[in-house]
Every structure is written in structure tokens, then in C-alpha cells.
Amino acid sequence: MCVDANATVVCEPLTSAMDMLLIPHLPDSFAALASMFEAMPQLVRDLHSHYQYAATSTKKLNFLGPDHEQLPYPLWDPEIWSNPRQLGPAHMHRLVYVATDQHNQQQVIKFTKQYGWDVQRAWAAADLAPNLCSSPEQVVAGRWQCVQMEYLPSRAGWLTMRFLMQPVKEQLKYAPASWVLGPAQMPDLVKQAEQLLHRAHSVQVSGSFAAHGDARPDNIMVLVEACNVKQMKLIDMDWAGVSGSTFYPVTLNAQTILWPAGVGPGQPLQQKHDLELLKLQVNPALFAAGTSWRKMFPNGVQVSDMELGF
What we know:
Blueprint: E1 2-3, E2 9-10, H1 27-56, E3 82-86, E4 96-100, E5 106-112, H2 117-125, E6 139-140, E7 144-150, E8 158-160, H3 161-164, H4 168-171, H5 186-201, E9 204-205, E10 208-211, E11 220-225, E12 228-234, E13 241-242, H6 271-281
Antiparallel strand pairs: 1-2, 3-4, 4-5, 5-7, 6-7, 8-11, 9-10, 10-13, 11-12
Helix pairs in contact: 5-6
């Protein structure tokens, strides 16, 4: 709860929406629901005590300001974070932010209910993903995991693969000419992305091998210098885990995204799915010189795609 400059009380939801389905291989979701019901009596008592105190107190309420209205509370502390901002357009409601820490280093802060910590740590050690700056023990209220990681900024030449797959004239609206890739470079871009996945798949994670689970061009960051690809890294490890024993979420979007055969809510991740999904998203036949890019992206790509991912 906070109060704005016009003395308007703003109440945030007490809890996010919770699925009441019992899913055997996702015990955390049901445990969170049980914890909420267990805490409810104490919550009511605490609220009662708080409002009794507030009704008689003359203490001035803390004004957080309009910049905090859309920020999760862990980012409110100015002694820890400065200049926090959301990554991507606000209408997507993604809990992914960039902020500067006490050491004047920018980090990505992501709030998620599940994350492939071991996978990202192993892939980052092989220079295939951003470095983590936090551990799985960093859990905030509501069993949300607070994932802090290395920031790959667009100003340094890091762009999403999706951004680079749009027409040159569209790229030039948001990026300097030295970062632009043309149609003739697309087959090689796709090949390098496939090689990135092959390298990631060969890295051992706790004695096994992992799959990403959502290896779309949106989740592949590309470092471009002098119109050439210098490096690639995988991001957005929410679903990542050991191939064959980690499962896709029951909320998987099967309506607007075309997935490979075998991918579905509650189905096991497979490494082959990563490669097949990438091929579905970037059909090399469309990248021949002279091919119309708008056949692939009739609505274009937004500037937020330069940094959006994670």
C-alpha cells in the first residue's frame, strides 16, 4: 500500500493469482497455495492491529513517489538499487527490470516462480549465458525468486536475434549502421544460433545435460560489431532444466506460438525441441537474398526487442 501526491490510497493485490490444480511434478505451486491459506489468519490479525494503530497515529506516511508505483518492493530501497526501470513495454507486464547496484554496476533483476539456476550457472561458466549475481536462496514474499544477473545492454551492441531478423531499414531506426545485419547474413546468423545451442547442450549440468525449453530468437542475445556477429548468449532460463526430467509449464502458450511436436503443458523438455523450435522460428528458406522480410514479420519488430528477453 502507498499514498500518492494527491493523497490517494493505492492498494496492491495481497497475492498474485494462484492455480488450484494439483500438478504432481510442480509441487511448489500447490505448496504456495497451502502456505497462503496457512498465513491468512495471521494476516487478518496483523491488518487489524495495523489499522488500529493507523487510526490513532500522527506519524506521517512514507511517500514513495510515482516512480515506485510499478516497481516490486525489493527495488524500492535506494541504498541497494538506483535508477530502476522495467525492461520492455509496460503493457507486457513482465517482471524484468534493470537497476544499478551499490557498486555502480547495472544488473537485470527478474522475478519468477521457477528458474533454471544450475543451467544458467553452468552455461555462464562456458560463456554461453549471462553471469548470475544471486543465488536460489534469494526468495521474496509469495515464493517469488529474485534472479539478478549480468546486464547485456543494447548500447554496447547486444541485440536480440529477433531484432536482427527484421528489415535493414527497420534496424536502422534504432541502431547504428555498424550493428545492422543484412539478408545475406541471415543464414550464417541462424547457423551460429544452432551452434550455440549445440555447445550449450554439451555442457554438463549436475552430471546430466540440459535443455533451454524456449529457444526462440527472442531469447538469444547477439553481440554485433562492424556488421559482424562477435558473440551469442542464451537468456530467459525460466523453464531450463535437465533434458527428459524437467517439464514444460501447464501455462505454456500453445495458442499464438508454434511449438515442435512433443512440446505441450506438463510434457518433458528435450534438447531436440530447442533446435526444432529455432528452426520453426527462423526458416532459412526465407533468408535468401531478395526475400521479403515482411513475409516473416508482417507487423515489424518493436524497439523494445533490442533488449527484451531474460
